[in-house]
Design goal:
The protein is α/β, with parallel strands linked by helices and 127 residues long. The chain has one helix and eleven strands, in the order αβββββββββββ. The N and C termini lie far apart (53 Å). The structure holds copper (II) ion.
């Protein structure tokens, strides 16, 4: 009995360590439009579902504009608005219909995006 409790405790500690120190969200790079190296426009599709943007962390080259193709599959009103506060851009996402949000070329940095209540949240890494 004591052993079971200890094992449970260890499992819990491992889970906490993993969640806070080891878990790193995957960074997905926006693809160049038409796959041309010379293109300075990127594009990526983001699915809005189950409380997360997929992918939630996107990297873009510096001085590239990017078109984010949002597909919202979550019917809750919470998921409907996406806001890019640093860029002063927001969009209303229709349900189950793709909507492209064009973003201008940005300087290096980390730009957040989220729904109005920040339950959905993501970031753009410009590098
Ligand atoms: Cu929300």
């Amino acid at each position: 009995m004591m052993l079971t409790v200890n094992l449970l405790g260890l499992g819990l500690i491992a889970l906490i360590v993993w969640w806070f120190w080891l878990y790193k969200p995957k960074l997905v790079k926006a693809k160049n439009v038409q796959d041309k190296e010379t293109s300075n426009e990127g594009e990526i599709t983001v699915v809005v579902e189950d409380g997360v943007y997929q992918p939630a962390h996107i990297s873009i080259n510096e001085n590239n504009s990017v078109r984010i193709n949002f597909i919202r599959k979550d019917a809750s009103p919470c998921a409907a608005t996406v806001v890019f506060p640093d860029l002063d851009i927001s969009a209303e996402l229709p349900l189950n219909k793709p909507l492209v949000v064009p973003l201008p070329a940005m300087n290096k940095g980390l730009y957040a995006f989220h729904c109005q209540m920040k339950m959905y949240s993501g970031s753009l890494l410009v590098e």
